[in-house]
Design goal:
Helix content is about 55%, strand content about 5%. By secondary structure, it is mainly alpha-helical. Strand 2 (about 55), helix 4 and strand 3 form a beta-alpha-beta unit. The radius of gyration is 16 Å and the shape is globular.
């Protein structure tokens, strides 16, 4: 996984999400600056046969551009401005925006590939943060509404509902790690 780490709040949201995914063992983070700077061991890692997640804060897509320099195409590319993450210069991102976007990306990755976090892990994580399974479902419903606004309701609503329902029933589909 590679992320933007520029100076805006959107860039730092991308970076915080990538770090969180790395620390929670969802995906292994690597250094996009090293790829863009042609550091041989980091370019080799990027060119290995892994599924790559690229997270950019804004439409400039610097992360994706660094990968493209070496003909590396990410399997998943997220531009956080498409998730209503504001790009504010000289400001840190709000924790609510970071966590909501992180949760949304987890569902997007789960829906896209059936990999990533299982509903059980989402529910356990929510409980550790002091949330009930009902709030996980509320979050899934909010994501479904957000998906409708973005014009792709059928796929995303189905997956968000599946994960939300699974969190209550304790059903999971944890297949692997990126």
């Amino acid at each position: 996984m590679y992320s933007c780490s520029g100076c805006s709040s959107a860039a730092q949201t991308a970076n915080m999400i990538a770090i969180k995914m790395d620390r929670e063992d969802v995906a292994e983070m690597s250094c996009i600056v090293g790829v863009g700077g042609d550091v041989k061991p980091l370019v080799r890692t990027a060119k290995s046969e892994r599924d790559i997640i690229a997270i950019d804060g804004c439409p400039l897509s610097c992360t994706k551009s660094c990968l493209n320099r070496h003909n590396v195409v990410p399997k998943y590319h997220f531009i956080l401005s498409g998730f209503d993450v504001p790009k504010l210069n000289g400001q840190d991102p709000g924790l609510t925006i970071v966590m909501n976007t992180y949760t949304h990306l987890q569902f997007e990755l789960g829906c896209a590939s059936w990999k990533g976090l299982s509903a059980n892990k989402v529910a356990i994580s929510a409980i550790k943060r002091g949330l009930s399974a009902n709030k996980v479902v509320l979050s899934a419903n909010r994501m479904a509404i957000s998906a409708s606004k973005r014009g792709n309701p059928q796929i995303e609503i189905g997956c968000a509902s599946w994960y939300g329902l699974s969190a209550i029933l304790g059903i999971g589909a944890n297949i692997g790690r990126f």
